[in-house]
Amino acid sequence: MPADPTSRPAAHRRRPRAAHILGQNSGLILAAAILLLSIIVFAGMFAVQQGRLPGDFEITSTVNNTMPLALAAIGQTIVVLTRGIDLSVGGVIDLTNALAAIFLAGSILHMIVVSLLIVLAGAAAGLINGLLVGLGRLQPIVVTLATLSIFQGLAIRVLPQPGGAVPAGYTSFLVNTNRPTALVFLALAALGWMGLRRSRLGVNLFAIGNDPQAAIALGVKAVRTRIVAYTIAGALYAVAGIFLAANATAGDATTGDGYTLTSIVAVVLGGVSLFGGRGSAVGAICGAFITTMIVNILFFAHIDPLYQSFYEGLFLVIAVVFGGLIGRLVRSGR
Amino acid sequence: MKRLALSRDALRVLAAYGAAVLLFVIGAFVHPGFASFQSVTSILLVASFVGLVAAGQCFVILIGGIDLSVPWVLNAAAILLTTASLGQDGRALYAVSLTLGMGALAGLANGIGVVWLGVPAVVMTLAMNGIIEGLALGLSGGMTCAACASYAPPAIAAAVHGTWLGIPAALWLWLAVIVVVSFVLSLTRFGRATYAIGNNPRAAFLAGVNVSVTVVFLYALSGVFSALAGILLAGFGGQASLGMGTPYLFQSIAAVVIGGVSILGGRGTYLGAAAGAASLTALVSVLLALNMPEYGRSIIYGVVILVLLLLYGREQRE
Predict the structure, then answer these.
(1) 1.10.3470, 3.30.300, 1.20.58, 3.40.50: which CATH number matches B7-312?
(2) Per-residue 3-state assignment (H helix, E strand, C coil) for chain A
(3) Cα–Cα distance measured from residue B178 to residue B174, given in angstroms and rounded to the nearest whole number
(4) pLDDT per position as a tens digit, B69-105
(5) How far A241 CA lies from chain B's nearest CA (Å)?
(6) Complex ipTM, two decimals?
(7) Residue B109: closest CA among chain A residues belongs to which residue?
(8) B190-214 confidence digits (pLDDT tens)
(9) What are the structural domain ranges in chain B?
């Protein structure tokens, strides 16, 4: 692990390898455990009420519905790793969703070019955030609050009324309605993360998240790293916006708004520390799926949908409190 | 060095007031009558709702926290006021105390979560927003309950709209809040403790400040201010509606930041935040006077906040 804050002088006894891995990844392990538990609870409720286990249809729709959130949460994770926070997620998804609904059409080549341009637009939005945070030396929370307003305005300018259309072929490529093939994209994202984690950029991201001053003293280009982090995040939000449009087969310049808050929820549930320096894409993906599973469970528990956010909020607090407790226990037991 | 830092903070407050005055002047040019007494007081009346929420937000931001539970505490307060009073003056006092109590309770829970459960402020207040939203929607049946159609008690509506010396009563209330909050923050032991915690909680603790209790109290205050704004807004509009609190989260944070309060805590004054609320509302009014469509307002709003931040919200080089 780079920038391991627990490394000590040689005089200390080294911890066993297993305990080290457990201690470093307690957030991720907890997220995976909660996800597993929520899937078991959901499957149990489903089996009792429907007389069978959740099949292809349920799994596929869950995966397809979670795709935008999972991608947004990975982007948010990269920003949060640098001790930042990105509130403009909703605005970027609104904008790219609107662009996708209007411009996706025609030949395969045309659609590929349009998709790439939309991802570039997302990256440009992220770049603006990054420049303001990095070079402008402004606080991330206020910068992204302001750019959220700007991107939301642009999205409504692009698509004043819900509408547009996404070609059926495009939809079935990204979010196949018969098989959860979209999982392949998440696997790709996780692979990309492993590459990032081992690259110089990844090491720098974690370094400035753990201790910015020490990282700068060791020669990490903090400003450049932050700018790149926000840019990559913006590109990921754009992909989320495209998936959202593909899933809905149409566009709406306001459906993305909710992703600002849910991406933060998913990141927190995924064991990413809001204080920076700890987190992973797999954790963020787990967090996103937990968020969807909670909604599914509440539905099958016949909870009045009006109370939904009450239970989500309560669950969020409980998960964070217990996560903190378990993390403390693991770390104190070294 | 100390004097220089002080004058810089004072400059930020002055800049926020300057922005407000400038916007009124611009408004007067683009729309005759914009800067008339009548128009200015009605714009400031709208600003007072943002300003009251910003008072609570200012308190928690000064200690390095943030309150994201504003939208639904405010909205639930408006719903609770109308449903508990049933539009009767006789029940107004009971409804107001119940509503302020609800705000205090929500804020108290925020504070307890942040201080004793160790939940980050962003997560705790975000979750609280969801919890209150779920309760407000669920208990009112999505605003379909029999009492949900009630109006705010006439006494409260009159208190908001009524004028004294030509100025709306809600503005007098805001003025009183500005005076009291500024006095408390700058001249009392409690205010000193707030700044001390914002600058360095550990040092404040070692200096004998009861950090935990102060922080919890400040979050509770923020809840009370959100609830107060909800009461006034219900009185202003006559009824409660779903989603009425949503704009106040971003506006309150923007007002506080434009007013020169550091989002990291420990620096800034409520006097500045109040100016921020006034200039934000003036900006929106100018854009409305220009018949700017919604998307344009949204974009310009964000750009103006960024420009003001770049002018005086920058941090020192690392």
Answers:
(1) 1.10.3470
(2) CCCCCCCCCCCCCCCCHHHHHHHHCHHHHHHHHHHHHHHHHHHHHHHHHHCCCCCHHHHHHHHHHHHHHHHHHHHHHHHHHCCCCCCCHHHHHHHHHHHHHHHCCCCHHHHHHHHHHHHHHHHHHHHHHHHHHHCCCCCHHHHHHHHHHHHHHHHHHHCCCCECCCCHHHHHHHCCCCCCCCHHHHHHHHHHHHHHHHCHHHHHHHHHHHCHHHHHHCCCCHHHHHHHHHHHHHHHHHHHHHHHHHHHCCECCCCCCCHHHHHHHHHHHCCCCCCCCCCCHHHHHHHHHHHHHHHHHHHHCCCCHHHHHHHHHHHHHHHHHHHHHHHHHHHHCC
(3) 6
(4) 999 999 999 998 888 878 777 777 788 888 999 999 9
(5) 19
(6) 0.82
(7) A317
(8) 888 888 888 888 888 888 788 888 8
(9) 7-312
* Contacts within 8 Å (CB) and 24+ apart, B288-296: B289/B27, B289/B30, B289/B31, B289/B34, B290/B30, B290/B31, B294/A153, B294/A156, B295/A153, B295/A154, B295/A155, B295/A156, B295/A157, B295/A160, B296/A153, B296/A157
Q: Which residue of B has its CA nearest to A214?
A: B318
Which of B120, B135, B301 is opposite residue A274, by nearest beta carbon? B120
**Contact residues, chain A, for B141 at CB < 8 Å:** 306
